[in-house]
Design a protein that fits this description.
Helix content is about 25%, strand content about 35%. It has three helices and nine strands; from the N terminus they run αββββαβββββα.
């Protein structure tokens, strides 16, 4: 059964028309912290001999971290862009502002949708988002108690020293 499925999948891939448009990110990966922003750039190229398009380019973000869900609208307010028709050999660059809203591992990808049955996707850009370090309350009590005492002792020492000088 597995061989049959693999054979059918291979035949489907060979029978599917080749995409006349290529989409790629400017970098394979980006690292950031929660709340930080980065701008991803995609290049859309028509390597064919015929004009291609127009298209709609759509950005999406998916989580590769278990138990971390993604609402793409939180990651980017600009998730769809219109792309006019591309002449043969023409390249167009799109910018995608992205803000990390959760810690974890994510993939961002762009899908190019035209008027035909073929969807073109970019190889995903891998996003590593570090969590924020938060200070816990543990260990705060000694600081809260000792600091005023040290400041009081320093003030008393200065006052004593000033009185001795006179």
């Amino acid at each position: 059964m597995r061989t049959l499925l693999l054979t059918l999948g291979l035949l489907f891939l060979l029978a599917a028309p080749a995409a006349a448009t290529e989409v790629s990110f400017d970098r394979p990966a980006a690292g950031m912290g929660v709340g930080q922003r980065v701008t991803l750039h995609t290049r859309i190229t028509n390597p064919g001999a015929e004009p291609a398009g127009p298209f709609v380019a759509h950005l999406d973000v998916v989580s590769l971290t278990p138990d971390v869900t993604v609402d793409p609208e939180d990651w980017s307010s600009e998730r769809s862009q219109d792309v006019d028709a591309l002449e043969p050999g023409e390249t167009r660059e799109l910018s995608w502002p992205v803000q990390a809203v959760a810690a974890g591992t994510f993939d961002a990808y762009v899908v190019l949708v035209g008027h035909g049955p073929v969807l073109v996707t970019a190889t995903p850009a891998h996003l590593e988002v570090a969590g924020r370090r938060e200070l816990g309350a543990g260990g705060a009590l000694p600081v809260v108690v000792i600091m005023p005492v040290l400041l009081g002792l320093a003030a008393a020492a200065m006052r004593y020293r000033l009185r001795r000088v006179r």
